[in-house]
Amino acid sequence: VKRLFLVCEGPQGLVVIDQHAADERVRFHRLRTSHRQRAIKVQNLLFPERVECSEAEAALVQEHHDALLALGLECSLLGPTTVAVASVPALLH
């Protein structure tokens, strides 16, 4: 339907699938599997992406730095409300 949804027939009748949600679900499953196997491939960014957030969110990034790094997210604080993201999981390119 207008390149957004797939309309399919299933054993219990009509099934409508949101393609974007399905793609996100597949990527999440792959990321979770990679994390469990400790095999997350990382894509370094040519230039770190600056993200503006609240001071509380920036504090969470600092507090959970190691957990984010284990997920393939290399983040560092540039200021009280600015986070630089230097790498992301390759699955999320």
Structure explained in plain terms:
The structure is a single chain. By secondary structure, the protein is an alpha+beta fold. It contains three helices and five strands; from the N terminus they run ββαβααββ. The strands form two sheets. It has a three-stranded antiparallel beta sheet with strand order 3-5-4. A two-stranded antiparallel sheet has the order 1-2. The model has no long low-confidence stretch (mean pLDDT 89).
Tell me the total number of β-strands. 5
Query: Could you say which overall geometry the principal axes of the C-alpha atoms support?
Result: elongated
Give the structural class: alpha+beta
Unreliable sequence segments: none
Q: Could you outline the blueprint of secondary structure elements for this entry?
A:
Blueprint: E1 5-10, E2 13-18, H1 19-36, E3 42-52, H2 55-63, H3 65-70, E4 74-79, E5 82-89
Antiparallel strand pairs: 1-2, 3-5, 4-5
Which characteristics define this entry?
two-stranded antiparallel sheet, alpha+beta, three-stranded antiparallel sheet, elongated
Task: Describe the structure concisely for a colleague.
This protein has 93 residues and is α+β, with helices and mostly antiparallel strands. The chain contains three helices and five strands; from the N terminus they run E-E-H-E-H-H-E-E.
